[in-house]
Structure formats: structure tokens, C-alpha cells
């Protein structure tokens, strides 16, 4: 998409730039708007040995992630694995930015929740930057 500058009559294409806001983040400039790419915390559980500890973790993790701006999009619903994917409990949490997702994971309140799990679960957790 090209936006034509009205004063000069030249075409301007939207670009993705890196800049410093309060932290380094991807900014998308288009039609006079700027948007920070969202961040996602994705967790896939390979095994759960103690469901009670998982429930304790959830009681602490949910408010910790929400306080950091997280919105739980999926948690423990139906999962179908394809290729090498496993069909186990999966959690997806959306944040306003990649930096916010990293900060939430590293926060003391969320790490307190993680400590409750101990070695009772095996899971794969990652933070992913969205496209927009």
C-alpha cells in the first residue's frame, strides 16, 4: 500500500522501524498511526504429575499475568497436534507488546507462581512477537 503525500504528491510506503519508546520495540507506521507489535506467552505442557499444584500455580499466575497487561486467549481447551506437535494442555496469553510479555514472565509475582510447580510439570514456554 502506498500513501500519497497531499502537499508534495509523492508516494510513501509504510515501513517497519526500530525505535526507543520506553523499551526497544517494533513500531509499525501506517496512515499516521503507530502500533507496537503484540507479544504472546505460549506454554505447552508435556506432562502434569500433580494437578493440585497446577491449580495453585493457576491461582497465582492468572492475576500476575493480567496485572502485567496479559489477556488469556486459550487455556486447557481442546488441542489437536499435527506433525511433531503434542496434543496436551496449551496456554496462550496476549500482551500489548513483546517487551510486556517478557517483563510479565520475568516478574517476581509470576516467578512465584512458577516456583509452586516445582518439578511436577514438564512444559515448553516461550515468548513470541506478533506481526502487528
UniProtKB/TrEMBL annotation:
**InterPro entries per the record?**
Dimeric_a/b-barrel, DUF1330
Name of the protein: DUF1330 domain-containing protein
Question: Could you tell me which Pfam families the record lists for this protein?
Answer: DUF1330
Domain (DUF1330) spans: 38-131
Entry-linked SUPFAM superfamilies:
Dimeric alpha+beta barrel
Annotated source species: Nocardia arthritidis
Q: Specify the domain of life of the species encoding this protein.
A: Bacteria
Amino acid at each position: 500500500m502506498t500513501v500519497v503525500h497531499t502537499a508534495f504528491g509523492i508516494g510513501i510506503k509504510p515501513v517497519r522501524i526500530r525505535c526507543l519508546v520506553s523499551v526497544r520495540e517494533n513500531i509499525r507506521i501506517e496512515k499516521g498511526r503507530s502500533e507496537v507489535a503484540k507479544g504472546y506467552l505460549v506454554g505447552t505442557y508435556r506432562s502434569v504429575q500433580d494437578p493440585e499444584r497446577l491449580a495453585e500455580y493457576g491461582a497465582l499466575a492468572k492475576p500476575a499475568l493480567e496485572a502485567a497487561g496479559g489477556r488469556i486467549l486459550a487455556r486447557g481447551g481442546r488441542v489437536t497436534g499435527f506433525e511433531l506437535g503434542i496434543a496436551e494442555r496449551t496456554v496462550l496469553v496476549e500482551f500489548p507488546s513483546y517487551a510486556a510479555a517478557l517483563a510479565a514472565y520475568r516478574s517476581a509475582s509470576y516467578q512465584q507462581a512458577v516456583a509452586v510447580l516445582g518439578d511436577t510439570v514438564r512444559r515448553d514456554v516461550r515468548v513470541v512477537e506478533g506481526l502487528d
